[in-house]
């Protein structure tokens, strides 16, 4: 999981006391003095979703993102995409997670909830937004039988590694990937 695209600053924050109230398809998160609402993405036109994916993963085209988004929307038991909006219904962050049944580096159980990516707009960073999004993904994975939540970070992304530790993750291993043409 990347925390921010190239040249972007870290997006995680330390916790604040939070109360969560379930309302239909949305979760209202209250933390004085602001209110925010977490919604599950339900269409390719979900406000902010494509824009945040492009900000987090700028090497992919909008069309490539839309293709992945369509695949993930078609498999709601396997993939979860959440947007968080401020009081004015402006998008301020998102997170994507999946249920992985294959081997996930460093885990001991299967299936495993996996955080694929998270992004919070710069103006809303360091306010507990990412922590709330991680909690929602964790609840979703737990409800699907997962006992672990996993994620990843690039070796050079020290801010992401620090944020993961602050969120209760422990480093399990470091990997270098290789490829060659066939």
Question: What does the model show?
Answer:
With 182 residues, the protein is of the alpha+beta class. It has a single domain, classed as Gcn5-related N-acetyltransferase (GNAT) (Aminopeptidase). The chain has 4 helices and 7 strands. A 7-stranded mixed beta sheet has the order 1-2-3-4-5-6-7. The longest helix is centred in the last third of the chain and has 15 residues, at 129-143. The protein is globular. The two termini are 28 Å apart. The relative contact order is 0.20. Residues 1-33 have low confidence and may be disordered.
Proportion in helices: 10-25%
Strand arrangement across the biggest beta sheet? 1-2-3-4-5-6-7
Count of DSSP strands: 7
The number of distinct structural domains comes to 1
> Rg, please?
16 Å
Summed up, the helix count is: 4
Looking at CATH, which topology would you report?
A: Aminopeptidase
**What's the main sheet like?**
7 strands, mixed
CATH class reads Alpha Beta
Fraction in beta strands: 25-35%
Kindly name the structural category: alpha+beta
